[in-house]
Specification:
Elements: H1 2-30, E1 44-46, E2 50-59, E3 62-67, H2 69-79, E4 83-88, H3 104-118, E5 123-128, H4 141-148, E6 152-155, H5 166-175, H6 200-206, E7 215-219, E8 223-226, E9 239-244, H7 248-261, E10 280-286, H8 288-300, E11 306-311, H9 317-328, E12 332-337, E13 342-343, E14 346-347, H10 353-363, E15 368-373, E16 383-388, E17 394-399, H11 405-408, E18 415-421, H12 426-439, E19 447-449, H13 458-471
Parallel strand pairs: 4-5, 5-6, 11-12, 12-15
Antiparallel strand pairs: 1-10, 2-3, 2-9, 4-7, 7-8, 8-9, 10-18, 11-16, 13-14, 15-19, 16-17, 17-18
Length: 476
Amino acid sequence: MKTFIKRKKYFLLLIVIVLIVAGTSIYHSYKPLPDGVSYEGKIHYVSKVDFLYDLTYSNDDKTIQEQEIFKRIFEIIDEAEEFIVIDMFLFNGYHDGEKDYPPISKDLMDSLMTKKQKEPEIDIYFLTDEVNTTYGSHEAKELSILQENGINIVKTNVDVLRDSNPIYSGIWRVFFQWFGQGGSGWIQNPMAKSAPETTVRSYLKLLNIKANHRKVVATDKTAVISSANPHDASGFHSNTAFEVNGPIIQDILKTEQAVINFSDEAVLPTYEGEEEGGPIAVQLLTEGKILKHVLKEIRAAKEEDTIWLGMFYLAERKIIEELIAASQRGVKVNLMLDPNEHAFGQQKIGLPNRPVAAELSEEGEGNLIVRWYNTQGEQYHPKMIYFEKQKGDSVVIGGSANFTRRNLYDLNLETDIKITAAKDEDFIKEVDAYFERTWNNEDAVYTLPLEKFKDETTGLKKVMYRIQKLLRFTTY
């Protein structure tokens, strides 16, 4: 009898623990968002938007890098007069030395320090993600140096965001979060062998897999919304960015202040510029509002239109289904994807893009074509969709957000810009030329046909992809 009662107590205790974990998982999956997250800005009208890109490709057995984004960002820092606000996901120089990577993190750090030393009255704020400290295992050298030189550093508190990996995160929140992450690490850093060793507790936090994934620079003069990180090992990635000015800068500051409000106590400056007017409509979108507008534009595409996509990760089911539906009603859909073959010099197995590409090709009825960017150890890292309209204005949506659940369902922090303009505007011509050049291999072999990465394991990868999506235990 005593044994039965003892077993019953253990069983009841187990039930209570399961209920607590389940309740925690459910609450943190659906809890209210912090104020200012999932932002849909006003439509502003401007006379000019600049399209910037980094492009890595091979030509005559030589690797060529065309790099515009950080070159322009360094100029923007130098041109600022009143304030600089930067929000960047990856900001470090860690790599394993396989290549002579450009020292982007040091260059950005030096640029900000020089600016502060020359103009000590200027306000500089740098927001970033805990990934750069491997979730609290160690100090981030670049951030520490910036802080010592009078630059305000904000490390984002992503714990207040909804959980993207609820089964695991419920367990982590109940049992492990209380112990912190700092201390003497002994496990190899997942970022690079040269990075400081990490604690087990940091690895446990990493497995929550959510982040401040934004890549934004805003000053009193102008702003850049980008897909590029100031991270040395990402220095050869192909990326895209958009430079814009006017009151949309204040919208950016609002979304960054929202992050500070749940992470720190700083107060950002305000942008005082007035609406200049012009033929180009620009609108700031963050988190879930990006998905809303992407779906709206795909559904609005007509038979004579073309949808162009340049994307690192494509896995979000609603977007996949709407792209298929668009192709089936006669819209031409051209998808330029990363083959998901490399990540920081390490081999990957092609998830999620390869099984998704196979599905899209099968269902697209000839109007949907997938081409792979011809990567050579780097990544094709843009997150951009372009709606080429035959009638009416064309639309571009781009920034930091991959087309995945984690990036588009109010889980990660993301910033995109929506740009609407006539097809004879220089900006649209530049975007159009970018896609035509890379899609058609005009002066180099930028892209490869679908068959290049269509292998016999696609069926297995489809199963793995579906299981990962079901359990929400993915890095995409």
